Amino acid sequence: MEGADQRRLERYDLFADKVRSELSLTEVQLAELKAEGKTRTATYQQLFANRMTLQQIVDRLQEAGL
């Protein structure tokens, strides 16, 4: 069972890394759109909502120590 637990932990770590990476990319995209004055576009609004969701996931991962 120890090997299975290790693989599971590795998958959690990979998930956490991907979420944090996606959050960073989303923040860069939002900053670019904001600099272009495109804060009212559908793309900006969707990215903003995605950022909120990703941030909540990251917060929960941090609370869990991951």
Largest sheet: none
User: How many β strands by DSSP?
Assistant: 0
For the record, give the distance between the C-alpha atoms at the N and C termini, rounded to a whole number.
21 Å
Number of domains: 1
Helix content: over 70%
Radius of gyration: 16 Å
Structural class: mainly alpha
- From the spread of the alpha carbons, the general shape counts as elongated
Stretches with pLDDT under 50, minimum 5 residues = none
How many DSSP helices? 2
Instruction: Provide the residue-averaged pLDDT.
Output: 95
Short structural description:
By secondary structure, the chain is mainly alpha-helical. The chain contains two helices and no strands.
List the helices and strands and how they pair.
Layout lengths: L1 H34 L6 H22 L3
Helix pairs in contact: 1-2
What does this structure look like?
This protein is mostly helical. It has one domain (2-63). 85% of the residues lie in helices and 0% in strands. The chain is built from two helices and no strands. It has helices at residues 2-35, 42-63. It starts with a helix and ends with a helix. The model has no long low-confidence stretch (mean pLDDT 95).
List the main descriptive attributes of the protein structure presented here:
mainly alpha; 66 residues; single chain
